[in-house]
Structures
1.
Amino acid sequence: MYDKTVRRRRAVLALLVVLSLALLTAYFGEAPGGRLHDVQRGFLTVISPIQDGANKALAPVRNLFGWFDDTLHAKSQRDQLRKQVDRLRSELVANEAERRSYQELVALYHLDRQLNVSDYDPVTATVVGKSPNIWYATATIDQGQDAGVQVNDPVINGEGLVGKVTLAAPDGAQVSLITDSTMGVSARIGSSDATGIVQPKVGDPNDLLLQYLPANTQANPGEYVVTSGTIAGPDDSLYPPGILIGQITSVDEESAYKSVNVHPTANLHDLDVVQVLTSTQHSLPASLSRIAASMPPGQRGATGASGEQLASTGAGE
Amino acid sequence: MTGVPSLGLVGRIAALSLAVVFFQIGVVSEVPVFGVNVDLSPLLVAFVGLLCGSMLGAVSGFAVGLLVDLALVQTLGVTSFIFTLIGYWAGRLRELRDPQAALTPLLVGAAATAGSLVTYSLIEFMLGVDAPVSFELVRQIVLGTLVNAIVALPMWALVRRCLVGGLPDDPRRRRRRAYTTGGLSPLSRVR
């Protein structure tokens, strides 16, 4: 009787382990459109309404926990903000005279026109789930293909760029945040035309690194990094130009290409409502950029090795 | 528990697993504590194993892992594999040692969390996921284990409360009770 129990117990364990490894192998080996991915998409479709309902029902609980967390961090945040206000005030005074006398207002006007989000058919979505580990910086939203959301659509919120859609189901979608290890966004420093690729910083997944900038690029801590409006490869997402990504915290000049550390402006730990820009895929700039990205590097222009070229050859992917 | 589990107990485990996973995804994952997120799933699996034995621990670990992987759109099979081993290990701990100390759930919860985080990292490395290899990862594992250890005792109380009605009386515990009361119940001793 005892031997039978032991045999059965070991058989169940072996069966489950083998089943897990078989699932892992099959899932990892198949294409994104494979059968197991379809099952996952189907499951996401089924649980999205449940998650949505649970998210709404549990919002008070989340807010309560958030209130405790906010209270605990309030003092340190206050001190940080005071320092920031002092620094910003001095910067504001220094910039005021230059801002008045120059044509920056015109540039800002153009920037505002470029950032006219309504042109990109934004779909407002609520974040209903987030990955709890540091390996996958992903979030689940409650809008999907039925609302026009497609894979690679950019996702923003009021603070800046959040990420892009990496999986779309009819009633929900998965968003990879800009801190996800698979992400790479073509970007430029606000005051410069040189472009590079923003990727998560290895060793600190909450921060970003703007890489492959030309060595002569001027970059100073405190400057803002925005999307360049170009794409890093044929399968990449077209982020509208000028969307705020983050603020430069420090500059590294250790190699031929300059890289700068960037702290994201969007609070990716506290996402609630986001907007998916659904019309970028079929817009004229997107089509042109895709054509440009599919060309051999030598045919894209005589501007030298830019971030997009490096990325399209694999360095930035 | 070596016999076939009752349907009631399986139903309780299934309902508890669903509730905990949805609560984890919808609430707990969005509230960072000391910069990390509490992960209730490994605690749930370990405590089911600790209460119900190795077989149910392994099966519930596999099911919870699969649910987590499906809901979070992660690589299928990774979490199932880890949670199967955690559930089995916790169940064997109960069957072989039957620890009764008050801090047992805390230690088991911490060990299960640390084991799950380290194994998850190793598997992701083996799968070639481009991820940070640094002090940050070690910090996440250590802090994640500590934070999970803090919530282990309330989680144990919850799991125990939900499952205890479906558990059969354990003969070994009955024997232990008999031993500590001198082999007789207090009423029979009076007589």
2.
Amino acid sequence: MKHRDTRSIEDRLMVRAPDDRWSDEFRVELQRDRRFEGSLMRRETAVLAIVLLVILLRVIAS
Amino acid sequence: MIEAVDVILVAMVLSGAAVLVVGCFQFILAGLHVMRRPYARAMELYPRVAVIIPAWNEGAVLGRTIDRLLAMHYPQDRLRVYIVDDGSTDETPRVIADRAALSPAAVVNLRRETGGGGKAHAINYGLRRIQQDDWYEAVLIIDADVLVSDTALRRMARHFGDAQVGGVTAYIKEGSEPANYVNRFVSFEYITAQAAARRAQNTLGAQACLAGGAQLIRRAALERLGGELETSTLAEDTVTTFRIQLAGYDVVFEGNAVVWAEEPDTIAGLWRQRVRWARGNVQVTRLFRGVWLHRLRVGPLGGPGFAAIWASVIFMPVFMVASTIGLVVLFFSDRSLSVQAFQWLWALAGGTFLFVTLCSLLIDTEAARRCWREGLLFPGAINLALIMFGLFGPVITPLIQPQLAAVGLHRGQPLLTYVLFFSDIWLTLSIVCAYLVKRLEQSGHLRALVAPLLYVVGYGPLLCAVTVGGYLAELRGADRRWEKTDKIGRIGELVA
């Protein structure tokens, strides 16, 4: 007879126990992705500043 | 009364920039994505994943797709690939049999002798099979031509650390090598429509679509939907996404999980694919009519921000035609106001275009390196000239006026009036011209002219024309069969 896993889906998704340390590879990857998401904000702020400058110059010129 | 009419006409004119303004709104939201702390609940998880690949005559691409999946950085005992061979008549069965022989524990062949019923039906066949036991904890549905990057699945799976997340979608990039002009336009489009727009939707807390090419769904969420995808529309992925969210789960976009897809390299091929998408969007709009602007009842999916994004896609041609009507009526009723409204429209379009385009090029610099020209010419050369006029007109006009006067071109001259009228109607005319470029390509004549004409007319107007095509096909009640996009295995060695 087939064994039926009675744990909840959420429990079964947990390969590691909650208090386990994450692997170095995972932490480095997560850190890199967090940094990238943070950098998007800075990049867009720089672009926004350039666009606002162009618009300001246009208003002054007109 | 006359003033009220003028206000309405000017509003109609400015609606022509609505898509760009909403685009600008999306890019601002994408920049704020980090404020939502997208990885706050991420955990190192490796759920047992059943990969379902619907395949109908995909012999040219399927083998490499399976090889990439099995080479992913993911525990091999937690990954099974189920290929639903939907009655293929090419070499697909042999490709699957070869892979299954090499990796019998990881590759499962699900052959349907009477296939060809469509992608959603094939996926459902696979879903029914994997639900016969308790093995799988999440299902990854991908297209037969999609090549995953090494870390795509584990980057997607980490979001299941949040029990609220029911589905995760990856960042699909166009990977054809060599890439022709259509591929490069699609590359740029995917930066805006995926890398930026889907991050924006993460910020809003509502996703429009788990990309059909790569979607990871938690078992519990799939079971809440009855364990199957909806098959009555042409947008089964969008319907699934909406239903998961309406069932109380979150759907998130993981922009750092990259997969590569082979997109059409002809305008006609793109047209077929996009008309299907456009029709699907119309069907979804109708199917979920109770969702729009009902935030209190359905959550972020019913929020005004999400409705604005959805409307900018669905009603894009309506806005452009309304803008042209406003300009033409003003042209004949109040020429001076017409000129002013024209300048406001293109100044608005110029500012937003500059922001959206520069941000796109910075969001994915790798893709931008190969498609930056198409990014700049996305609206078409003529629209770009009008945008430049809108941005720099007040600076340029006093400089060129003496030169124009020297050759006898004064304000009010018939030639300048014609140019002004042409500029007024171009927004709508460009949609018609984009359609004619597609027809020219299909005719097989003057093939060398097709690419330059698309750069002049613009890829944006082509997408608008496709949306109109989708409306018309829906109105006609055209056949809803799933038209497969031909894939020949053109994805280059881009996979990281």
